[in-house]
Automatic annotation (TrEMBL):
The chain crosses the membrane at residues 6-22, 29-48, 76-97. One of its GO terms (biological process) is ATP synthesis coupled electron transport. It is found in: Cell membrane; Membrane. Keywords: Cell membrane, Membrane, NAD, Quinone, Translocase, Transmembrane, Transmembrane helix, Transport. It comes from Actinoplanes cyaneus. NDH-1 is composed of 14 different subunits. Subunits NuoA, H, J, K, L, M, N constitute the membrane sector of the complex. One of its GO terms (molecular function) is quinone binding. It comes from the Bacteria. Its EC number is 7.1.1.-. This is NADH-quinone oxidoreductase subunit K.
Length: 120
């Protein structure tokens, strides 16, 4: 498989994620679009790791160029992005749930960003 195919798929996924964040009114769907963008980044990280390892396989003498001496760094970065995405989903869903309890809806258009807090 050509590396270009994976990059084009990742760009399409990232574009769909950006479109979902910009156009969606529902907060949960916006979080799903952010997850789609993070998965596109994971695809780019793993693809770049595989393609660079295959390109550096013939370079002698340097420790960073020897693919067998280091674990897959793209996969490690992708794992960190997955952990970050899990934390983002947990915090994001907690915020959305609290907002739903307060307002009764999760529409992003109805979120008052400039309203001051009213003390009771």
């Amino acid at each position: 498989m050509h590396v270009t195919i994976a990059y084009v798929i990742a760009a399409a996924l990232f574009g769909l994620g950006v479109y979902g964040v910009v156009r969606r009114r529902n907060a949960i769907l916006a979080l799903m679009a952010v997850e789609l963008m993070l998965n596109a980044v994971n695809l780019v990280l793993v693809t770049a790791d595989v393609s660079l390892r295959s390109a550096l396989r013939g370079v002698p003498g340097e420790a960073w160029a020897n693919p067998s001496s280091q674990p897959g760094s793209g996969g490690v970065f992708a794992l960190f992005v997955i952990v970050l995405a899990a934390a983002e989903v947990g915090v994001g869903l907690a915020i959305i749930l609290q907002f739903y309890r307060m307002r009764g809806a999760v529409a992003l258009d109805e979120v008052p960003l400039d309203q001051e807090r009213v003390s009771e």
